Amino acid sequence: LPLLFPPAGVMLVPERKTEDGFEEHFGLNYLGHFLLTNLLLDTLKQSGTHSHNARIITVSSATHYVGKLHLNDLQSRCSYSPHGAYAQSKLALVLFTYQLQHLLTANGSHVTANVVDPGVVNTDLYKHISWVVKVAKWMTAWLFFKTPEEGASTSIYAAVSPEMEGAGGCYLYNEERTKSADITYDEELQRRLWTESCKMVGISDESSRVP
Question: pTM for this structure?
Fold first, then answer.
């Protein structure tokens, strides 16, 4: 049973909030997937077996490398930047995936969690960029941008490849395991983000029971 996130997302939108009052990048790109994953975890755990793990695949991006996590201002209320808010949401997805895998391993669950960088893909996510950048994108898309089908290849690889059976906590790009930003391996930061995310979406923090 593969579970692939995100089914929805935004990029570089002007400052605005979701219906639940969250900054839109953080709410849609990260918190929604954090909550949905947790709501489905029991089903995923029941679906996985020793020889056939259930798989959770989260889609981040290379933008996470320049992201900064502001734990005291996750909603970017003090200083809003579309680029900063987007990068933070993508960084949060990587930290979340690593902490999720830690919890799954600690509980002996037959579920794996990995995070994917699809590359630069020609999609409607770019509709909020400036007209100058849009023109440049239109002129160079054939050379530098992946098609949606090409962009989906690494996610599909993570979801169904026999090579990924039982492998979790990986950052994948072009169907290969690679290193994510140094800060994503900070276990204390992973735990703190997880705890704060639980508070924001109103669920219990299971990580507090795991050493």
Answer: 0.85
